[in-house]
From TrEMBL:
The keyword Oxidoreductase applies. The keyword Cell division does not apply. This is FAD-dependent oxidoreductase. InterPro entries: Auxin_biosynth/cation_transpt, CHP04046_FMN-dependent, FAD/NAD-bd_sf. Pfam families: Pyr_redox_3. GO terms for molecular function: flavin adenine dinucleotide binding; monooxygenase activity. Keywords: Oxidoreductase. It comes from the Bacteria.
Length: 410
């Protein structure tokens, strides 16, 4: 059995960030990755994928963005190149292709880590597997005809890979809205089941909205100071895109151009899909968030006397004349499920979870000595699960690990 001061479970951006700071502290550790490092970026993104945050927010430890377009949006191949550079800089002590099957406490202290490659032990453990593990697909999907191709968002690659015919995209969060746009721009007939995801402007009053929000301190705000507190972790990400230099995604414009919009998908009855009559409400609510964000920027500009182009209020360019609450499945070529993921921490045999199966922690530190989580959405700030904020979280946890090792903390 191999023993280490620290075992990091997960070789994505979070686990590698932890390795970077553990090496800075000269702490013996091992990274265990079930597949290959940063594989989700390589294997679970569609061909036309771009970041929705500007490149200057790419700030992995020791590897800030240094390209020629800090205000641009890296495409998939550019993201992979950026990550390859990060891996080369970190040079982590990693075992790829090793799946952790059980994490439990050892009677003599520390942790037992049982894997597909045997048993390991560690004094402390960082769980850096993220929070997106099991695709959410409703059970009634099992009753769709086998002639209809079903994909989850992580499996989608491009319009050409789908069979001919209409495509139903279920979910209007970041992935759903962008995949629907990808299909729409390729001339495919698209139905989109619109959920409760909010949206935001790409550019407002002369700048990227992300730049305004950064100046306003939003991305430095800890979850303990957010108005929703830990409830913010349940929020759906705003839909917007970095495609073609960045722009808004306005589903109403897509509808004017022929995309068929429906409310939330509820059920399958016989050969008919049933949708809730909430399309108009969901579009209105998304626009309300859009306008509230812009209004907060207006207030910031006014209070500081900043010179900027005039503000505006979004007015709907299209409204549904009726709620389309049914759609025959006959003739559909494919359904793409874009309604998110559930976390799967069933392999962790330790009392660190709340009643919803989520880890209980304060800034990644659990009540169980020496066990930490890293890379979760809103672990501490908006950027905790992203390139922009994971370094701060990783450094914080490694400082904590070093203090526990030295006996400064229990």
């Amino acid at each position: 059995m191999s023993h280490h001061n620290v075992i990091v479970v997960g070789g994505g951006q979070a686990g590698l960030s932890a390795s970077y700071y553990l090496q800075q502290r000269d702490i013996n550790h091992l990274v265990l990755e079930s597949r290959t490092m940063t594989h989700t970026w390589r294997e679970q993104r569609w061909d036309s994928f771009t970041l929705v945050t500007p490149n200057w927010q790419c700030a992995l430890p020791g590897a800030p963005y240094q390209g020629a377009e800090p205000h641009g949006f890296m495409k998939k191949n550019e993201v992979i190149a950026y990550l390859d550079g990060f891996i080369a800089k970190v040079r982590p002590p990693v075992r790829e292709g090793v799946t952790v099957r059980r994490l439990a406490a050892r009677a003599e202290g520390g942790y037992q880590v049982m894997t597909s490659a045997g048993e390991f032990s560690a004094d402390q453990v960082i769980v850096a597997t993220g929070g997106y593990h099991t695709p959410i697909i409703p059970r009634f999907a099992e009753r769709l005809p086998p002639s209809i191709l079903q994909l989850q968002s992580a499996q989608y690659r491009n319009p050409q890979s789908l069979p001919d015919g209409p495509v139903l995209v279920v979910g209007s969060g970041q992935s759903g809205a962008q995949i629907a746009e990808d299909l729409h721009l390729a001339g495919r007939r698209v139905h989109l089941a619109v959920g409760e995801a909010p949206r935001c402007a790409r550019f407002y009053r002369g700048r990227d909205v992300v730049a305004w929000l950064a100046d306003m301190g939003y991305y430095a705000m800890g979850v303990d100071r957010h108005p929703l507190r830990e409830g913010v972790r349940d929020n759906t990400n705003h839909y917007v895109t970095g495609r073609d230099g960045g722009r808004d995604i306005d589903l109403r414009v897509f509808a004017m151009q022929g995309m068929q919009l429906h409310g939330q998908l509820d059920d399958l009855e016989g050969g008919t899909l049933r949708f809730a009559p909430n399309l108009a409400a969901n579009l209105d609510n998304a626009d309300a968030v859009y306008n509230r964000i812009n209004a907060s920027i207006d207030k910031y500009i006014q209070e500081r006397g900043i010179s900027a182009p005039p503000g505006s209020v979004y007015q709907p360019v299209w409204r549904p004349s009726e709620e389309r609450t049914s759609l025959p499945v006959e003739g559909l070529a494919a359904v793409i499920w874009c309604i998110g993921f559930r976390p799967d921490f069933t392999w962790i045999d330790l009392p660190v979870f709340n009643g919803r199966g989520q880890p209980s922690h304060v800034r990644g530190v659990t009540a169980t000595r020496g066990l930490y989580f890293l890379g979760l959405p809103w672990l501490y700030t908006w950027g905790s699960g992203r390139f922009s904020g994971v370094a701060r979280d990783a450094e914080y946890l490694v400082d904590r690990i070093a203090a526990v090792r030295s006996g400064a903390l229990n």
